[in-house]
Amino acid sequence: MSEIGKLTIPLFVGTVMNWALLGTLAVQVYIYYLAFPNDRRSTKIVVAFVGIAEILQTLADSRDTIRTFGAGWGNPDILNEVGWAWFSVPILGSIIASVGQIFFAWRIHIIAKSLYVPILIALIVVFQLGAGIWTGVDIIRAKEFSQFRHLKPP
């Protein structure tokens, strides 16, 4: 396998899997809204937000894949460009994960009638979200994947 193949095959397979999982998520969201029409409005908003954010993430990933395999075909320099990966992976991924984790912390609070574990979870979520945003900013500053090795910790 060529060196370019080692770089591009995971990108292609990951994008195809992302679309398949987005389809699965769409079905789950649809079934949720059919099965639980009387759920709290806040819960429905969380589900809608996560669904829309996942669509945005899939579109951003697809944009980079199309740029690599379409407009940038045959140009090895395009593989080094960050594209929208700074946003779609660390920032949007952290936001989506944070929403889910805060939701489950709230559920733990409701079920256990305790604040200690949910507060601990919320603190960890804040650090995770901050780290995701920081990583996105670092990726923007690097501008190219080959420059990641020169990034310095805060």
From TrEMBL:
UniProt keyword annotations, A-Z: Membrane, Transmembrane, Transmembrane helix
Ranges that cross the membrane: 7-33, 84-106, 115-137
Keyword Transmembrane helix assigned: yes
Domain of life: Eukaryota
The protein's name in its UniProt record: Uncharacterized protein
Organism: Mycena sanguinolenta
